[in-house]
Amino acid sequence: MLKIIEYQKKNYHHWNNFIEKSNNGTIFHRLDFLSYHGKKFQKNANHLLWLKGTEIYAVMPLGILPKSGKKIALSPFGASWGGLVTGEKFKLKYVFEVVESLVEYLKRRKISEILITPTPMCYFRSYSSYFDFVLSSLGFKLINREVLNVTKLPKNSEKVWERLDKKCRNQTRSALKNFTLKENVKAKEFYPILIEDKHRHGAEPTHSLEDLEYLERNLSRMIRFDVAQNSEGQRAGIGYFISNASTLMTFYMAQEDAAMGKNGLNALVLRGIERAVKEGFEYLDFGISSRNNQPYLGLAEFKENFSGFSGFTRDTYQMKLK
Length: 322
Fold this sequence. Notes:
Layout: E1 3-6, H1 12-21, H2 31-34, E2 48-52, E3 55-60, E4 63-67, E5 70-75, E6 85-86, H3 92-108, E7 113-116, H4 130-137, E8 141-152, H5 166-178, E9 179-185, H6 187-200, H7 209-218, E10 223-230, E11 235-242, E12 247-255, H8 264-278, E13 283-288, E14 290-291, E15 294-295, H9 297-304, E16 310-320
Parallel strand pairs: 5-7, 12-13
Antiparallel strand pairs: 1-2, 2-3, 3-6, 4-5, 7-16, 8-13, 8-16, 9-10, 10-11, 11-12, 14-15
Helix pairs in contact: 3-4, 5-8
């Protein structure tokens, strides 16, 4: 039988060590990542652990926030996904115990609703849909599904070129001649490119420069930025998160207005894939190509041109508790 407990500061290192060794933990479950928010959500954090005896069996980052005079629970809050993290060896009966105890805990706290976005399947060491099945079985509703473009990487970096679409190969070859690539630049060099790109789409970046510099200082082994610049000073950039030992993700892809149509991103993507292969990653996650269940077909096609990407989903489940 499992015991549910609330996170305390004394659990900090045990939590992060568990994430490192887990079946499906990622950067978004790490407490040192979530702390980039500083004190903004400090009073809302309500992370949970499940113990089997004295050992951690599972964890879930969780926030409890006010909404329209009520309280809602979110996993994740301030990250791309959250949900249950377990070890590689786990049983269906225990996943039922976890979710049942979670619902009981939230009802005692008089929470009116919970939203959970679990880790996408490409981040699992051993694939399992147990958690999704249990959520559905106990009355959670699937309320949103986004599509991720993810490629399984070849074992040899020399195979990367062979997987490019013909037109993409020609564009990329030309871009490599015209752009100089700089790897592992500072966030402050990448950020102006990101701002210009987001403003072109009428949006703001998920992270402020201060957020990215915090992560750069505290999680330097899990975040990096590459920039491409041509002779006219036109730039493109990619911001990577090393999500876990098997998967690298492009959290940001951006280009300046003047760099549009110059294919600087092509050059960055190719070199990024080649480097990921050499570093031993199994997957490269190019992020979502949809929003609110609606596809961005042009964005998906750009990514697919680099190796016929596979589609995984990022699902969100909801339960009304009262």
